[in-house]
Amino acid sequence: MKVTVSPGHNINGTLLLPLFEGSESVPTSLEAGLHTALKSQINRILSEGDFKGKAKSTMSIIGSEGGKAMLVGLGKEEDLDAHAYRKAGASVVANRKKAHGTDFTARFSGASIESMGAFAEGMLLRDYTYDHYKQKDEDDDEEKELTVRITCDEGQEKELSSLIFTHAGVTSGVHLSRDLGNCPPNDMYPEAFADQAWEWAKQYDNVDVTIINYDQAVKAGMGGLVAVGMGSARKPCMVIFEMNAGVKGRGPMLVGKGITFDTGGISLKPGANMDEMKYDMGGSATVFGTMEALASTGYAGKVTAITCMAENMPSSNAQRPGDVIKTLSGKTIEILNTDAEGRLVLSDGLWKAGEFDPEYIIDFATLTGACVVALGHEATGLWSNDDDFRTRIHEAGNAVDELAWPMPLLPAFEKEMTNSKIADTRNLGAGRWGGANTAAAFLKQFVPNRGYEKDGEQIPWAHMDIAGTYWGAKTNSMVGNGATGIHVRTMYHLITNG
Ligand code: BES
Ligand code: ZN
Ligand code: ZN
User: Fold this and answer.
1) Do the two domains 2-155 and 169-496 of this chain adopt the same fold?
2) The one catalytic residue among 343, 352, 392, 444
3) Long-range interactions of 421-424: CB distance < 8 A, separation 24+
4) What is the pLDDT of residues 350-399, one digit of tens each?
5) Alpha-carbon span 302 to 243, nearest angstrom
6) Would you identify the CATH topology of the domain 2-155?
7) pLDDT one-digit tens code per residue, 330-349
8) How far apart are CA 432 and CA 412, in angstroms?
9) Which residues does residue 362 pair with via DSSP β-bridges, in sequence order?
10) Of 26, 52, 227, 233, which sits with the fewest C-beta atoms within 10 Å of its C-beta?
């Protein structure tokens, strides 16, 4: 989608007219340049209540004497904020089939620069289809690129353009995450992800990607990553992204679970809907997408990321329930269920993160079905060893309308996970209750202390369980279907706004 910004009243293509609930006529400030007959037509529709301006609603109109318009509902005037404008922008694209043509001009009455930018952001975000595996019909209007001109007042052009440039860059990160998540698992395997990261980094002078391959992982003692991935012909690897590594001081560290397909391993999952386990690399996609968002918008700070890539397969080389493995941290884990594999690969990723002496660590993982039971597809589960840090992440999520809900890290859950008779810890709780919390407590054991000091302070860390929010989120209006690309925007906001 091409977005341009300019002041002026001329309308190219279809006029987009955002209206709040109960608008009875076209706002006078928008009358200039509007075809008189079309204006009366719209006014009649509004005064007769045929278009109510409800959030997410749209109505397409062809002027009897020329001109085309799409009325776009903003919802209640008292609730009007950037979120409402973002949703309205998204609803235009969601209804593009009903719009006549692919060129739009958006006009606003009394909207702030932030709100106009959010409208464009919603259009950009929603302008996504995953059709790489479908044959193309070039004549189809839906295949054509949309163009939209956002009209503003004189003097607003520069600020609005730069805001939209940022939204476009961040959207490219969200869409990258969605592409990675939607890619079928026969084409998205650990090495394919690593190769894509390697190729991607070439376009940015300030980003380096390092791949720790299977042999190197074995040699380094990454027992968690190796145990999960060794059952597959597609061998596991770790991918390290370093952005602006030369900048002095500490930077954020993101860690992602990258299970490119989760069959459950020897503890095999039931067959129904197993195809959805291609999204089990959603954490690694969030991390990669965030790096793209930051790099494409020219972020100059230091950021590091680690993705733990493996395919969880049953085979004669696969790990078994009953095995005891040794992780990078030196801690041993008794494997009680090979389907609790995300926490194993993350144990090595989190421990490795300490090498970079980060300001904080955030991990993203489609970790537990229990988190989906707790929060549905509406909110990500959020745990942290630092209350203030957890609040900051929660607020960053709220600022961009990506909900992350605070969950408890309790000593009782940690105790449950260390109760193994033959190893330091175990990968399964005592029962299924509180499964998202016991998983978080398990991870906490692998968050290093600053400088790996034995009695030092643990690095501030947060865990985000995106099992319910990375896919299947039908109420997420920025997404049609498939991978959602959630939390690229949250992370961009957190990292760039402090
Ligand atoms: N990848 C799954 C979690 C998952 C479930 C993600 C549903 C998305 C939707 C994870 O590896 C898993 O299988 N977890 C088990 C853990 C259990 C064996 C302790 C689960 O949630 O059942
Ligand atoms: Zn699993
Ligand atoms: Zn999994």
Assistant:
1) no
2) 343
3) 421/334, 422/324, 422/334, 423/324, 423/332, 423/333, 423/334, 424/331, 424/332, 424/333
4) 999 999 999 999 999 999 999 999 999 999 999 999 999 999 999 999 99
5) 6
6) Leucine Aminopeptidase, subunit E; domain 1 (3.40.220)
7) 999 999 999 999 999 999 99
8) 14
9) 254, 462
10) 233
State the DSSP string of 386-408.
-HHHHHHHHHHHHHTT--EEE--
Give the residue, by CA position, lying nearest to ligand 1 atom 5. 369
Which CATH architecture group holds 169-496? 3-Layer(aba) Sandwich (3.40)
* Torsion angles phi and psi, residue 441, rounded to 5: -65, -35
Beta bridge partner(s), residue 404:
380
Least Cα distance to 364 among 373, 353, 356, 355 occurs for 353
Res 140 pLDDT > 90: no
Token reading at 406: 């605070």
List the domain boundaries for the chain. 2-155, 169-496
Q: Is 382 left (phi over 0), alpha (psi -120 to 50) or beta?
A: beta
235 is catalytic: no
The strands making up 2-7's β-sheet, listed across from edge to edge, are 2-7, 147-152, 103-106, 14-19, 68-73, 58-62
DSSP 421: S
Residues with CB under 6 A from ligand 1: 262, 280, 337, 339-342, 366-370, 372, 428, 435, 467
